Amino acid sequence: MKIALFSLQTLMLAGGLTAVDTAIASADLAKSKNCLACHAPDKKLIGPSYKDVALKYAKDANAAKTLAQKIQKGGVGVWGQVPMPANPQVSASEAETLAKWILATK
User: Fold this and answer.
1) Distance CA 7, CA 53 (A)
2) Can you tell me the distance from the alpha carbon of 77 to that of 38, in angstroms, rounded to the nearest whole number?
């Protein structure tokens, strides 16, 4: 029993560290892809805050896919008439990582 308990605690700790590492990595990715030039975690800049995006899409089951596409292809009209430019330098995998990270910023 002690071994099983230790293993469970170890897995829980490792899982927590992985979540933290992913959050840090995603913030670094956002910075490296220049997302922070227009977006901030908790306030509107040129574009909406990540928190506002997460709240807007909270009930959308396809939100991660939708946001990943907008990150890569750009868009206009959802948040007003200021366009979000396309970001072809962001791979599909990076866009998905960023979208999931943004959605977790509630």
Assistant:
1) 38
2) 16
